[in-house]
Every structure is written in structure tokens, then in C-alpha cells.
């Protein structure tokens, strides 16, 4: 890959907020020792480069682990060489010589940046969350694991200004491409590396955020196929956590144009936990954004995907906890209308989850801010459930919620019931009138049926 030199500004290191990512310390590997450093002439400290460069050079050989012609002994030897390089980087005694940066980064690029295999059929089924058995594991992992370990240690322990010749924009794009790997172990390592680069290379942060946004938008509006959306959202969760208040306009646009549309794809359940965390971070920092977020989620509400409905109901319930109370009145009707349609759902899981929302004190408080508008919708949904729903458990939960609502405002509840009965009686009378008109039409048609019959003609031949 081409190498470009950037001239970034030297900015101070900042602590990231996703602390556990930086507390991770890869396990040490034990291999054959590399030549130890020695004092050279001229008063400088040099390494015996021949052995080190030989090990790095050997690691440039890439094994597929699927070719029967590959020698297992050579594969094991490469793994030992990689362990040796890791041991060298772990040594706290001497700093890494700058002449090793280029061959090390070249070796890392050769091993990591490779064409990924086409998606397997199991990756389509992987829309089911936490299904490790369906994951596809790359056979290259025994080597890739060590290469990622080498890259992490280089990023952590080498001055970022010295690595800018090697870790450039193209290098970052190549890392982002690898997030499409179906191996969850590789995606976890990529997440760790990418986040550390974001922390150390401060001048790249704007570019890295934009590059991740491009991946999200391509996923939402083009392919809806990507294995690493959850890991990228975890990185974003840490980034958002570090945003200052008030939020910049750029960050608000990211919420509205990228995060909210991510509720649309059918694979939402794979990354919903990370997405909900990112969205909640925005609302916690600026509660006034709650209205935008709630309306955005309602806009992308699924029609036939019951599992997504359950997830979104839970997300809305959590958002109500952080929404600015001044917005309760404007959001009460659209939120309660959606929850009412959900507890009228024929799917018992969706209906039960929607009814449980009424156990949330903040949700009830929000509904009470606009009782005149909310009660007619909710009471009508309750009565429909009690009459028509097939599930006994849903009916029982509906009875419990009904009792709670009656206690909140008995006169208003009775008024809503009377209006419902009045509408039903009016609709019944209209139905009777309509039926009578149709009966009159049919009777009149029967009396004049001979006009509708075709006339019979007899043809007489002239022969």
C-alpha cells in the first residue's frame, strides 16, 4: 500500500472513557528468544538486526491453512517467529529501534490486509443475537492473533509521530474494511486496535469518525449486510461519552442522520444494545434531544418484525427516563398511541412487553401530563383487548393496567367509556341503515328482473 506523510499537530493525550478497552493486556506468548541488544561502537545503542529482521521477514510469508501443500511445520515456525517479535515488543528494557518500524508495519500490513472470503450462509442467519455457534471462524487466527498483538503494542508504546508515516488514512480504511470479517475474535481485536489509534492519533479523529459514518450509511441505505456494525458502535459509544456539553452541531447531525436510521435495517437485533447505548448518551447529555430521538424511532417502527418491536419498546421506555419533562406533553400522545397499538398486537410477546411499560413511573407521569388526549386512545385499546385478544395472560395484564388507569382519574375513564359506547352504537345504527338500503336495492332489482334478462330472438332461414 502507498505511504503518505501527514503533518499533524501535536496534541495532548486524552483519557478515553471506555476504560476497559485500555485496561486489556494481551496474554504473553513464549517463543524462542531473539538476539539480545548489545552496545555498539560510536556510543550508540544498537540491536543485532540480522536475527530480528530475519524473523520479521519470515513472518511476511502468508499461510492460508486450507492449502494441503502448505507445511504444518512452517506454519508453526511462523507462529514461533511472531511470538518472538511479541516478546521483543514487550521488553521494557530498551526502546524499539526506529529502523524496525518499516519492516514491522510492512509485515503487519501483509498479514492483515487481505481479501475476505465471500459471506457464508450462516452470516445471514447471524441476525440472531449472541449466536456464537453460527459464527464463522477464520483458520488464519493462530497467526492473526499475534499480528494484532504486535500492532496494538506498536500503537501503545511507540510515539505516534514516528508511526504517522505508516499508519495513515489508507491504513485506517483498510482496518475498517476488515470489520466485515465474520470471525468475532478478529472484530474484537480490530475494535481494540481502532480505538487505541483513535486515542493516540488525535489528528486523525475527524477522519476516523467520518470513515465510520460512511460504513454505517452504506450499510443502511445500500447493502444491509455488515458483520462489524456492533463493534463500530461500541467505539462510537466511548467517543460520544467524551463529548462536551453543549453538543456540537456536527454531533447532533450524526445522531439524526446516522444513528436514528440505523433503527431501520432488519438486522437491528444484532447491534441494538450498542445502538441504544449511543442514543441514550446523546439524550443524557442534552435531554432536549429526546423529542427528536423518540419521533425518529417511531418513524422507523417495524410492521411485521415482532422481535424488533420488543427491542424498540424497551428502548423507548429507557429514553423516557432521560427526556426533558417539558417535552412530556408533546410526546405523550404519539408514544401512548404506539404503545396502545403494540398491546393490541396479536403477538403475545409484543402485547405483554407494551403492557409492562405502564409499570414505569416516568411513563405514567408523562401520560398524566396529557390525560385528556391520551386516555381516549388507551381506554379504547384496553377495551378491545378485553373483548378480542386471544391470550389469557395479555387479558390479565390488561385488567391490571385498566385498574391502575381507573384509579388515576375515574371520571375521565368513565367519560371515555361512554364515548366508546356512543361511537359503537352510532356505528351499529349506521350499519343497520346501510343494510336496509341494500335490502331495498335488492328488492327493487328482483321486481324488475325481467328488464335485466336478455331478449330471446329466433332466426328464420330464407332457404
Automatic annotation (TrEMBL):
One of the GO biological process terms: signal transduction
Parts forming coiled coils: none
Alphabetical list of InterPro entries matching this protein: ARM-like, ARM-type_fold, PP2A_B56
GO cellular component: protein phosphatase type 2A complex
Pfam families: B56
Region (Disordered): 1-46
Family classification: Belongs to the phosphatase 2A regulatory subunit.
Protein name (database record): Serine/threonine protein phosphatase 2A regulatory subunit
Organism taxonomic ancestry: Eukaryota, Viridiplantae, Streptophyta, Embryophyta, Tracheophyta
Amino acid at each position: 500500500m502507498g505511504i503518505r506523510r501527514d503533518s499533524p499537530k501535536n496534541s495532548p493525550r486524552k483519557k478515553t472513557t471506555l476504560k476497559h478497552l485500555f485496561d486489556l493486556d494481551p496474554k504473553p506468548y513464549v517463543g524462542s528468544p531473539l538476539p539480545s541488544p548489545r552496545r555498539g561502537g560510536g556510543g550508540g545503542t544498537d540491536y543485532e538486526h540480522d536475527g530480528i529482521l530475519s524473523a520479521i521477514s519470515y513472518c511476511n510469508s502468508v499461510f492460508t491453512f486450507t492449502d494441503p501443500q502448505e507445511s504444518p511445520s512452517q506454519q508453526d515456525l511462523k507462529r514461533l517467529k511472531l511470538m518472538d517479535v511479541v516478546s521483543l515488543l514487550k521488553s521494557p528494557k530498551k526502546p524499539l529501534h526506529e529502523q524496525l518500524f518499516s519492516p514491522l508495519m510492512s509485515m503487519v500490513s501483509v498479514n492483515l490486509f487481505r481479501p475476505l472470503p465471500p459471506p457464508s450462509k450462516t452470516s445471514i442467519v447471524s441476525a440472531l443475537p449472541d449466536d456464537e455457534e453460527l459464527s464463522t471462524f477464520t483458520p488464519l487466527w493462530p497467526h492473526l492473533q499475534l499480528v494484532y498483538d504486535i500492532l496494538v503494542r506498536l500503537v501503545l508504546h511507540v510515539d505516534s509521530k514516528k508511526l504517522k508515516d505508516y499508519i495513515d488514512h489508507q491504513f485506517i480504511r483498510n482496518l475498517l474494511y476488515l470489520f466485515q470479517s465474520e470471525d468475532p475474535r478478529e472484530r474484537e481485536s480490530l475494535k481494540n486496535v481502532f480505538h487505541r489509534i483513535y486515542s493516540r492519533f488525535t489528528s486523525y479523529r475527524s477522519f476516523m469518525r467520518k470513515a465510520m459514518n460512511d460504513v454505517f450509511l452504506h450499510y443502511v441505505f445500500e447493502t444491509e449486510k455488515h458483520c462489524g456494525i456492533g463493534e463500530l458502535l461500541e467505539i462510537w459509544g466511548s467517543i460520544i461519552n467524551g463529548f462536551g456539553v453543549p453538543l456540537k452541531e456536527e454531533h447532533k447531525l450524526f445522531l439524526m442522520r446516522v444513528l436514528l436510521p440505523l433503527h431501520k435495517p432488519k438486522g437491528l437485533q444484532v447491534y441494538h444494545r450498542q445502538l441504544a447505548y449511543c442514543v441514550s448518551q446523546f439524550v443524557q447529555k442534552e435531554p432536549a434531544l429526546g423529542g427528536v430521538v423518540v419521533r425518529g424511532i417511531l418513524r422507523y417502527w417495524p410492521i411485521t418484525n415482532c422481535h424488533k418491536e420488543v427491542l424498540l419498546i424497551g428502548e423507548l421506555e429507557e429514553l423516557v427516563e432521560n427526556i426533558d419533562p417539558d417535552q412530556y406533553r408533546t410526546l405523550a400522545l404519539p408514544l401512548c398511541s404506539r404503545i396502545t397499538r403494540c398491546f393490541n398486537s396479536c403477538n403475545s410477546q409484543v402485547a405483554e412487553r407494551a403492557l409492562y411499560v405502564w409499570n414505569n413511573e416516568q411513563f405514567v407521569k408523562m401520560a398524566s401530563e396529557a390525560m385528556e388526549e391520551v386516555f381516549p386512545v388507551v381506554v379504547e385499546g384496553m377495551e378491545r383487548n378485553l373483548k378480542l385478544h386471544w391470550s389469557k395472560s395479555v387479558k390479565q395484564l390488561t385488567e391490571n393496567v385498566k385498574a391502575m388507569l381507573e384509579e388515576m382519574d375515574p371520571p375521565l375513564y368513565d367519560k371515555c367509556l361512554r364515548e366508546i359506547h356512543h361511537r359503537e352504537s352510532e356505528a351499529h345504527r349506521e350499519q343497520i341503515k346501510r343494510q336496509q338500503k341494500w335490502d331495498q336495492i335488492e328488492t327493487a332489482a328482483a321486481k324488475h328482473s325481467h328488464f335485466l334478462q336478455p331478449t330471446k330472438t329466433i332466426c328464420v332461414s330464407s332457404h
